[in-house]
Amino acid sequence: MVRAPIVLDSDPGLDDAVALQYLLGTGLWDLKAYLAVGGNVPAEQAFRNARGLARAFGIAADVPVHRGAGRPISRVEFSADFHGPTGLGTEVLPDSTAPEQTECAAAALVRLSKEYEGELTVVAIGPLTNVAAALLLDPQVAYRVRHLVFMGGAARVPGNTNPVAEFNVWADPDAADIVVSSGIPYTMVGLDATNRWRFHRDDLSRLDAAGPGQRLTARLMRAYLKSYEDHTGQDTAALHDPLAVGVASDESFVTAETGTVIVETASHLTRGQTVFIPGESDRSYDYPPAISARTKHTGRVALGAGPRDFSAHFIETVLLRPSA
Ligand SMILES: [Ca+2]
């Protein structure tokens, strides 16, 4: 089977780490680059974590890891404490033995969009800073990328960072707005869907039983579950980032509609809100021209859990891809 070219852009991040493992486990993708972006952790720590994960999952020799933008487009960098002191709980992974790439993430994305024009899938599971930077460098990236799937946003459910905004979009709302207004074919996989597919304590015992190759994964998921418990009181954890990777190959993990997403970038109160205007809406609002003009760009927006069980598929798939 021919594996399709893909780029993963990530701010590792506990669920980012297992999203990479899941991507590799599917066997569907030819990972051309692993891009780091600040978000859950500052940009430099994201790069270190990404290199460590590339080594841990045995791809360091084959997949270049690129350093991302040093900061959000127009915000002060902010990192969540949800993912622990290193971003991977307390895990400090040995660095990759591969030489450091000098090409930055945005430049790599521009280059790969040319090399794999019309074929390249991009999955972004952190703030959209690198993708926006690539689009600013070369707006034609939007027309060369086959499909962008990003984890972010909350269309019709509450946010997790303020009452209406999801963290990735909140962290760099300007970047997100550049992306959804660029013309790039995109699918937004936000909290409407990601909160619906969970990792359970029972899944930990499957990892524990799988031997040394799943010990890192078990530690990461144990830390992730603990963070959920400490921060939200929930005893299960949302599979946010892995789900975005899953949707890149099969939309039936979610229900989705076509419409326009506009990101709130002006308000302090609702910063990062992803306002969803359904494409098939029979409601007629009286939009000002600046908003009406935006509705020519549409994407797919995940609005709930789909018929295919992602939680089951996730655990089965990571079990296929032990770490080194
Ligand atoms: Ca992430």
Automatic annotation (TrEMBL):
Higher taxonomy: Bacteria, Bacillati, Actinomycetota, Actinomycetes, Kitasatosporales
Q: Does the keyword Acyltransferase apply?
A: no
Protein's name in the database = Nucleoside hydrolase
Q: Which UniProt keywords apply?
A: Glycosidase, Hydrolase
Q: Which GO terms describe its molecular function?
A: hydrolase activity
Q: Which Pfam families match?
A: IU_nuc_hydro (PF01156)
Which InterPro entries has this protein been placed in? Answer: I/U_nuclsd_hydro_CS, Inosine/uridine_hydrolase_dom, IUNH, Ribo_hydro-like
Which positions fall inside the Inosine/uridine-preferring nucleoside hydrolase domain? 6-277
